[in-house]
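Hello forum,

I keep getting stuck at the same step: I have a sequence, I want structure tokens, and every attempt I make locally crashes halfway through. Rather than fight my setup again tonight, could one of you with a working pipeline run this one for me? It's a single chain of 198 residues.
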Amino acid sequence: MDNKYIEQLRTHVKDALRTDNMRYQHTLGVANTSACLAMCHGADMNKAYIAGLLHDCAKCVPDDVKIAECEQFGLPISDIEFESPYLLHSKLGAYYAAHKYNVEDDEICSAIQWHTTGKPAMTLLEKIVFIADYIEPYRNKAANLDGIRHMAFTDIDMAAYVILDDTLSYIRKTGRNIDTQTVDTYEYYKGIIKEREN
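Reply #2:
Ran it on my machine without issues. Output:
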């Protein structure tokens, strides 16, 4: 790992998240967890760490600015994203990674883009960052976290499926709008698990 580059990125991310100190702690947790998952599953540890470090780099951007910047940069905004602009931090973060933080690796940017909703047939790196965002050590409110954390290192597809199932259940209970991308991702991994069980 290029320690000098990583330290520079950490400094930039800390500044970007300066209005939310716990968000920065979460970010470090996701970066470290992503690196650990990468080591376990044979993915590139450096890519996983960088994707984890940058996954929320647009999180503290005000919602109106998220919308304005997505429009300015030509990033598509779905109806659900207009209604729930916080979802835009993923695709805006991927844009920042490429254009603000000079990340030239499309796989890293894609992992950032899909870390919130997931997507069907995620790459290993995309799954790693998606899961790390849910299980990193500062997360403590979700049900069955210990079991999911163990699963993440032993059965990554099952971990993705359980996280998606729990996420949809939680969103339904809160009455918030559900992104269809999350539903599509859930259905895909549900199919993977069912097919495996037959």
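Residues 3-197 form a domain with the Hypothetical protein af1432 fold (CATH 1.10.3210.10). If your local run keeps crashing, start a new thread with the error log.
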